[in-house]
């Protein structure tokens, strides 16, 4: 179905993607009108793929709700997880005619689905919106570069500490309690470690009194200062 840009959930998603004041930009209202006519709101069920590697890269997506995991498989069958995406994040951008990774929903949710050629055409007519869009994609690139630095410079358990602090900010919005929607295996594949190492890392951080764990998924950061110190040591 087409999208209703007056819905709070849609507004929140677009504001996260383009910036909270993007509606004040020149051409924003016309941009939203075109988006409402041509974009679609799509429901995605848990564990279903939005797209897979080698699918034609005809669309980009902006999550409205739910959690999406980006993953890539090797020819030998191993898997690497390289991003967890939430409301307002962007996925599906590709310079190639096909996607070089897969996107799978970790929970039930909805996304805005936009034809890639359409949005490129719209951006040509609304340069202020296009500029803001590219600024935010640069933020994503900087975030990925930060993650690569952490992966290359930190120990396995330090990487896990960084991950929990990041999730506290992105899921818990700065609160000490949050629910991890991804499995231990997903986390291990994201952080470049074995499942056993990830499990030992959670146990170690718990034993040190930095976190508490309920049902493997509910996390409470008990000593944020100590967790920061450990992650950055």
Automatic annotation (TrEMBL):
CDD domains: CAP_ED, HTH_CRP. InterPro entries: cNMP-bd_dom, cNMP-bd_dom_sf, Env_Response_Regulators, HTH_CRP, RmlC-like_jellyroll, Tscrpt_reg_HTH_Crp-type_CS, WH-like_DNA-bd_sf, WH_DNA-bd_sf. The keyword Metal-binding does not apply. Keywords: DNA-binding, Transcription, Transcription regulation. Residues 154-225 form the HTH crp-type domain. This is Crp/Fnr family transcriptional regulator. It comes from Alkalimonas cellulosilytica. The lineage of its organism: Bacteria, Pseudomonadati, Pseudomonadota, Gammaproteobacteria, Alkalimonas.
